């Protein structure tokens, strides 16, 4: 597609798409290019345009980065490449921040004193925070390539996973493929009936009515009378009572579709709608061996630059530089200071809002004005992969209207014998707090109780140990991530992200993306590009 | 009464479910059955103690989670309700996650427990008065 070709019809020069787009971009700028790309079906789903090409930092210019999560480490990496002398301060004893994986032997401490020692077998893990990367999170994918972080598929959609609602199908889980097929079948039949009764005559033209009916018949798998019924055709999507086989007993036996009332349960259509969210669409990826491979990949680029166990207590700035006061938690909270020309601060606002920050009143107000939400994940180690062996579920999710929200089956180690860890709860909203208020043991018990609905024969029998991470109880963040609302955005977002003297903030909270690693990276790139420009102009 | 709260919660959740991703809360759970607690104490156990701890004692990590026990700021009921409705610092916005009934109940409960003794109950009208227009 990149080579110009001669059109056989006209014999004239026909530009390739790329040449055309380049020409439009040159003539009309980025906005025109974007519109042209959209029209051609090429709209970039990401604001990532490749890594920044920063260079030529003033001799001896220094930057201190607060927080060695992904935002902080990316800022440090790009500024270092530009020629700045960079150092980082990190509260925890490891890099990555929310980019985090727990494995056997790891210790998780909570506000309030609860301590969990992770009991997983070697090779098994739980990603308490980020755990999947959509194909359009191009910054994350780029830096994974750059740092040699191996990626593998994350199984997102699994039609053989279950959907459960306590209010439908007598509380029994059903397969997503079957209920999803029935949902569209019933809806198609009803819409076809409405069209045929003339109910849509004032909104749909005669021509479109015919097209709509044809679509409903094909999409919904309706019969010649436009009904959604038990048949080999509908079974070819929803599954059979006896699937097609070979030889004497090869003939399939069709299955009976579920009734409309149960199919209309919200948990059913919400599952379907969920997979259409842009950020939930396939392909998705995960790092081989655990999400923290990304954080480790970044940290490897910053040898000796990160000071761990450093609790920042004050961010001061003057016309000549910034001074950070911190306690060295590895040395009995000894108070230390570090100075630099500029500061990139990626400390989550739950923490930063309680630190003295010398900045404009509007930035200080913004720091205190962003609500956060929580989340809770429970990893359950089972003696064997009964979901694969007994239920034929290889990766993907089972959803429920209970507070665990879902199970997720591991996207690695398929068919392996021996212990395996599945995600036994992913509680959000109010449920995240309900789980957070329980002890770790109670959270695991609650996850077992609720999750048993999907695998009643095996769940408790095969259970070995569990780890429950409630983000509201983690001392280093006390929440999961920012949850901006429209009012807060309007009043505070620009004040939060603008450079204030010699200080700039970065992190998922300084983005419109929210709790994704891509948010941390895009925010960080924007911050360091602006900071570099300002430093060059100074 | 219980039934009424249940319906209100379901309605609020329907809104929360549709706005959650639009608001950019990111990769968090796709479904939230919500808090079903009908009494102030039930809501406290179900939601508040996740951060403020079982006896309202708060906690300390890289930052402090404020104690609700013996908290003089709770004398100002409007301040408290406003904090629950809109969030403050790292505290979430509970408008939409909890119904006005639940917010009134839990505010009244906390103001009368954990060493606090503010007798005047918080009402649903108080909550509605302090909820931003169009967001209830």
UniProtKB/TrEMBL annotation, chain A:
Q: Which GO terms describe its biological process?
A: amino acid catabolic process; auxin biosynthetic process
Nucleus listed as a keyword: no
Q: Using the record's annotation, list all stretches that form the Amine oxidase domain.
A: 70-531
Checking Pfam families in the record gives: Amino_oxidase
rRNA-binding as a keyword? no
Specify the domain of life of the species encoding this protein.
Answer: Bacteria
Q: Which UniProt keywords apply?
A: Auxin biosynthesis
Instruction: Please give the catalytic activity noted in the UniProt record.
Output: L-tryptophan + O2 = indole-3-acetamide + CO2 + H2O
Q: In which pathway does it act?
A: Plant hormone metabolism; auxin biosynthesis
> EC annotation?
1.13.12.3
Annotated GO MF terms:
L-amino-acid oxidase activity; tryptophan 2-monooxygenase activity
Protein family according to the UniProt entry: Belongs to the tryptophan 2-monooxygenase family.
Name of the molecule in the record: Tryptophan 2-monooxygenase
